[in-house]
User: Fold UvrABC system protein C from Novipirellula galeiformis.
Amino acid sequence: MDALDRDQPALGFGTDSLNPHPPRGIEAVGGATVEAIRDHVMQTCPRVPGVYGMLSRTGDLIYVGKSKSLRSRLLSYFAASNKDEKGGRIIENTRAIQWETQPSEFAALVREQQLIRRFSPRWNVQGVPKRQRPVYLCLGRAPAPYFFLAAKPPQDCVGVEGPFYGARRMQRAIEALNKVFKLRDCSQQQVFHFAEQLSLFDLDHRPGCLRLELDTCLGPCAAACTADAYQEQVNAAESFLDGFNDEPIVALRDQMELAAANQQYELAGRAYETLHSLEYVHRKLRMLAKARREYTFIYPVAGYDGCHTWYLIHGGELAAVAAAPKNAEQYAQLKPTLKHWKAITANPIDRGHGAYPHTLGLVATWFRQNRAEKKRTFLPVQAGRKYRSMPMRHAG
Assistant:
């Protein structure tokens, strides 16, 4: 590898918490010109699954990607037809490329998500057309929970789903959701007074905004509702977040049709835009809810290099990972882990929300795009029979 600037940090992606095999090595190439980097890639990069990172002249990691064929994907950045596109602009800012092979495309996808979350490379979310920063739809913040957006959700939320894309679209959606469910959307600095709270003085609590008067908020700041009444609305909002409640869709559709019937076309147009945003949210929530209900199993994935892996999917999320046993001795060593996995998946009501909640969307999308892979999955209680009878096949 050609020498980079002296202030470049050590190469590498760091530990991989979802790799049950020995750590994967890092390969890297660099050069003073785009042509020099391309030549090094052609000479050394393998045609196997993996993740790659683009480094700037100062050694900063500016982009992370994955591919089921590293060599083909990296060489595509240097194509003349790609010069004015996203890849061309990334490679013009690159002075070194590092990559880490992975045993399968699924493993590369999981590792890519992990690295983007860890390093937030600027070209993964900024300066790239059609690429938007992910946000999560959150319901929480005591004492009066409400819908809000967060890049990294707080730990004490009532519910969190995502990721979603398009901050403007999502902002319209949460404004509508808080209005439909009559939840507050004010700052945490606002003081709240529920109707049942006792006071030494007979105070007239004034609302902090006009939403109470417009009947789009229950008014927990003005003692206009009890804590129980507000909680009922939070429960209904949580049902929407779980993908089971289409009340906001129905309410907005009625509002749009009424405005159009009254020839209030500007109001109808705004309602249509908001409805479009909410329908996107609702579609994704239903997809995620389906994954939470139906995706609890072991997913066996073969590695091109013999690093076969069993992924425990629980409630649609990656919950744990283990090296797939290749013989009776390895299976015996894995039995305590499988016993733990059985305990994790024993409760049919428990639907995830484990150590890797951000993997829900990844898992749901993977099995939607690779429907045949679902047929290869099995429950932890079936592991003993399956590992002997099911030949491992490379996924991706």
Q: What stands out?
A: The longest strand covers residues 61-67. The CA atoms of residues 312 and 318 lie 6 Å apart. The chain has three domains: 27-125, 135-292, 295-389.
